Predict the structure.
Amino acid sequence: MTTFNIKRAVKRRSKLRLLLIGPSNSGKTYTALTLATGLGKKVCVIDSEHGSASKYADKFAFDVLELESFSPDDYASAIKAAESAGYDVIVVDSLSHAWAGKDGALEQVDKIAAKLKSANTFGAWREVTPMQNRMVDAIVGCRSHIICTCRSKMEYVLEKDERTGKMIPRKLGMAPVQRDGLEYEFDFVGDIDHAHTLTVTKTRIPQLDGMQVNCPGRDFVVLIDEWMSQGEEPPISQRQLDRIKELIRHKGVDEAWQISVKDRYKIGSAADLNESQAESVIAELEAR
């Protein structure tokens, strides 16, 4: 029989999960870099746009990881690599290629369907959907702030014209070039137009709901950062715990030092550390 642990909910400090959606030349990359450099000192851009982010290297300080294949699994691996390297903020520019680029989800489906010699892609999606889910899990579970950009497309619906009786297209607005419903995975979603105005379409930050900001800058970042920083410190991550165990083995740390750490932080084991304490212990171990 399954045992459930029900406890009082606690707001914890968290990392930003932000999605920027906009057409070409709306300023998605520039806005992402502006927000990223306001949130942290160490920024990594996962670039699928053939080096376009690096054109702003004279204005922003960041490292870049340029993807050559746009499989959702490659995105997941790149995000985990940047997270493991200790980047404060990861910018994914752009997430649309994981859907409609070389080796992206749609191309993967076509390839698998061709192998199956079937015009029905249902069987192919059974293989590709787990890839998409692994990418989303890497985004949601990332211990760094993560900002993703997405290209947008015009979305239409067919409606019956009451005058003529004919079906005519009606413009609904802009939709991201990605799988339907991806926006639900993010804490914050904003649409950017050609005038570089960001419209907040989804947020868990009440004071930003529905806000419109032209060329969002430092003041906008402060509002986000203040909300994300409220609450209790998050617990140690599995990555941090694994790193501490690895360093203890590698450095040959004696039991006396381990006991001193437990006494200092009033914990029973390294698993009881919070995220900030874990970083301090890792730094101390690396310096030995």
Notes: The chain has a mean pLDDT of 89.
